[in-house]
Amino acid sequence: MTERRERPKVTVHVGRVEAVERLTPHMVRVVFGGEGLDAFATAGYTDSYVKLLFPPPAEGDPEPYDVQEIRESRPREEWPVTRTYTVRAFDPASRRLTIDFVHHGDAGLAGPWAAAARPGDTLRLLGPGGGYSPDPDADWHLLAGDESALPAIAAAVERLPEGRPAHVFVEVTDPREEQKLDAHSGVRVHWLHRGDRPVGALLTEAVRALEFPAGRVHAFVHGEAGFVRDLRRLLRVEHGLPKEDLSISGYWRLGRDEDGWQSSKAEWNKRVEDEEAAALADRT
After folding, report:
1. pLDDT digits 0-9 by tens, 203-222
2. Pairwise CA distance, residues 195 & 218, whole Å
3. Which long-range contacts (CB under 8 A, 24 or more apart) does 35-38 make?
4. Number of helical H runs and strand E runs in the chain
5. Cβ contacts of 62-65, under 8 Å, gap ≥ 24
6. Quick count: other Cβ atoms within 10 Å of Cβ 125?
7. In the predicted model, what is the mean pLDDT of residues 248-265?
8. How far is CA 140 from the centre of its chain?
9. Pick from 221, 215, 213, 210: nearest CA to 243
10. 106 Cβ partners below 8 Å, 6+ apart?
11. I want to staple 98 with a disulfide (CB 3.0 to 4.6 A). Which of 42, 88, 185, 280 is the partner?
């Protein structure tokens, strides 16, 4: 007789909206709080992220909310939809969780929700996950990303070690989307204004043109999957950087919503890794 294993419990946190702020024309900051975040804690990574659950809580929903039970007992169309967002900041003393949302009108799910959010609204979330923070032992740092990576980049910039140079490249639509980053004097912040050019084109050109300082670099490259692939190849193949000195991830992909991207991401990453391995072999 096979013993039935008890599935690990997944904690569903509930954040109550405390404040909403429009940071730029296309970036909305939502600050959550409340006792629903009592069990929430990060591991200190600057790229900590959560999975937001939509739709928001409604009258009649079961409490405690069990995502696994819902997925096991209900048809797929009744499952909550998840959207992944970076933890911009979390203060455990006050239980205040800050998340910045890119908002492009009515398109998407989380952006419109954030734009319409008001104090007292609630939202469920899972996590957090994460795995990157600037390595204090690196000789210099490279951070590059688009709007989707800006919250993680901003959090990382605040933790860059004093006395170590850093180059930070952020591609946004236009100057109105720039944000003030809390950087020390050794950090060079390069704002790139995309305009009508494809996402990531300016970013790839700028990083390629950078004259790399001497010493070991710790690099963070996140954002749209196409330019992330190109920059990964630049760093891994052309500059010969080891994987352990890189945090590289495609947060999203042009032409796909998060569900479509997550379902194909493993295959995409495998293809990128195979192409990278072949290119590295050709150079030896």
Report:
1. 999 999 999 999 999 999 99
2. 29
3. 35/95, 36/122, 37/13, 37/95, 37/97, 38/95
4. 6, 12
5. 64/12, 65/12, 65/14, 65/124
6. 25
7. 91
8. 22
9. 221
10. 112
11. 88
| Contact of 44 with 133, CB cutoff 8 Å | yes
Tokens standing for residue 201: 């084109």
| Cα angle value 61/11/117 (rounded, 5°) | 55
Tokens of 86: 């970076």
β-strands 27-33, 13-24 pairing: antiparallel
Q: What are phi and psi of 224, to 5 degrees?
A: -65, 135
pLDDT tens column, 150-172: 999 999 999 999 999 999 999 99
Distance CA 250, CA 225 (A): 4
Contact yes or no for 180/153 (Cβ under 8 A): no
pLDDT tens digit sequence for 175-213: 999 999 999 999 999 999 999 999 999 999 999 999 999
User: Which neighbouring-strand residues pair with 100?
Assistant: 29
Q: How big, in percent rounded to 5, are the helix, strand and coil portions of the chain?
A: 30, 30, 40
Spatial separation of the C-alpha atoms in residues 165 and 77, rounded to whole Å: 49
The residue behind tokens 């740092």 is 141
Cα→Cα distances 77→67, 71, 109, 111, 264, Å: 13, 10, 16, 21, 20
Write b or e for each residue in 37-53: b if 16 or more Cβ atoms lie within 10 A of its Cβ, otherwise e: beebebeebbbbbbbbb
Residue 82 is given by DSSP the state: E
